[in-house]
TrEMBL record:
Pfam families: PDZ_2. The keyword Phosphoprotein does not apply. Keywords: Hydrolase, Protease. The keyword Oxidoreductase does not apply. This is PDZ domain-containing protein. One of its GO terms (biological process) is proteolysis. Belongs to the peptidase S1C family. PANTHER family: PEPTIDASE S12, PROTEASE DO-LIKE 8, CHLOROPLASTIC. It comes from the Bacteria. SUPFAM superfamilies: PDZ domain-like, Trypsin-like serine proteases.
Length: 392
């Protein structure tokens, strides 16, 4: 077991504890999954209760920055309060754009109109009358990989938890750099990543890399696994030059590599891709191709996109732009959102908004808390694998 003295909670399988209020209700034993031992379920229940208790004060403070976006008293999605208006997911509200309302932490139901649209991120900005507390976009800091984050709504409790799994990078095909190697999954003695194969006519071949070479560093960052190396390379764009520190026949040297563009691979049919993506929960129709996003394993529903995300210090991290698959939630970082809102939108309207309509009841808990068994099962499978790894 791993114990974090700073947070005061055990971290054994904590990612599974982070993702649904069901855990805080002792939900492990009720799922009925045969691979989860009773001892492990009891440990995870204790961890979940501890974590929820620890994060509750934070969620209570940050819920003022979130709203429900409603159509005829039905929650369509979440929104983030900014000084420019309510930032939310355009494709989720588009069919209802003429009859939308928001409900904030204060319980006031306000009419809104679409003020601006940014297609690159599938973001709409809604104008409203009022002064809900806006998130801070001043001096934002990107969270590191492995950092815990949570999604806020205007009601009590968090809508989802997870960790940052991949740092901010572009999902657009034209922005993805390509090295042209196949990496060995097996660990290398003394560190590094062994190259199993070099693809012909690629950046790697042009730079003189060979099968069997061991990559020790990407730039000035040491690498010790193919996922780590892949994440570092994802930060670059075609045409970027990067220095790779290589060990060949026990001798280190530096290879200067000019990265190429990703080739066109045979694509999976859209129908099959949608079926694969939706396994384990609902996903957004617009869920890929964003210019610069963080990736998290936070398990939420599609209609919880648009909500603000915070770290465990209560700092605003960014806004969810899409739930893409069982293990992928994409977040526009605070810095990118700040720059986006200063840029010219794809659509801008001259607007007039109505005054607050009436006081509504804000749910005491996240509205999806009772509908998360599918995601619970998939998380527990991942948890069990992590528990087994720890015990080896």
């Amino acid at each position: 077991m791993i114990y974090d003295m700073n947070k005061g909670i055990m971290i054994l399988g904590i990612v599974g504890s982070l993702c649904s209020p069901l855990y805080a209700q002792g939900g492990y034993g009720k799922v009925g999954l045969p691979f989860l031992r009773e001892r492990d379920a009891q440990v995870l229940d204790v961890q979940a209760a501890s974590f929820y208790k620890a994060v509750e004060p934070l969620a209570d403070k940050t819920r003022k920055h979130a709203v429900y976006v409603e159509y005829r008293d039905r929650v369509i999605t979440l929104g983030t309060v900014t000084t420019e208006g309510i930032v939310t997911k355009w494709s989720e509200i588009k069919p209802f754009a003429s009859e939308l309302f928001i409900v904030g932490h204060d319980g006031v139901r306000r009419g809104v109109v679409v003020k601006a649209i940014y297609n690159n991120y599938d973001i709409a900005v809604l104008a409203y009358n009022g002064s809900l507390p806006a998130v801070s976009l001043e001096n934002p800091k990107d969270p590191s990989v492995g950092s815990f984050i949570y999604l806020s709504g205007p009601g009590k409790g968090a809508h989802g938890f997870g960790v940052v799994s991949v740092q901010a990078r572009s999902l657009r095909e034209q922005d993805k750099a390509f090295l042209g190697v196949r990496m060995d999954v097996n660990p290398v003695t003394n560190g590094g990543v062994r190259l199993q194969n070099i693809e012909p006519d690629t950046a790697a071949q042009k730079a003189g890399l060979e099968a069997g070479d061991v990559v020790l560093k990407v730039g000035d960052r040491e690498v010790n696994g193919m996922i780590e190396m892949g994440n570092l390379l994802q930060r670059f764009k075609p045409g970027d030059t990067v220095n790779l520190t290589i060990r060949r026949n026990a001798e280190p040297f530096v290879a200067e590599v000019t990265l190429g563009a990703r080739p066109q691979f045979r694509r999976i049919s859209p129908e099959r891709m949608n079926r694969m993506r939706s396994m384990g929960g609902s996903v957004n129709d617009v869920a890929d191709g964003f210019p610069d996003v963080l990736q998290s394993d936070m398990q939420i529903e599609a209609r919880e996109s648009g909500g603000p995300v915070f770290d465990l210090d209560g700092n605003y991290v960014g806004t969810v732009v899409a739930r893409s698959s069982r293990i992928k939630t994409y977040i526009i970082p605070a810095a990118d959102l700040s720059n986006l809102l200063k840029s010219n939108p794809d659509y801008e309207a001259q607007i007039e908004v109505s005054k607050p309509e009436h006081v509504a009841n804000v749910p005491e808990e996240a509205p999806e808390a009772v509908n998360k068994v599918q995601r619970t099962q998939s998380l527990l499978e991942k948890l069990q694998r992590r528990i087994e790894d720890i015990e080896r």
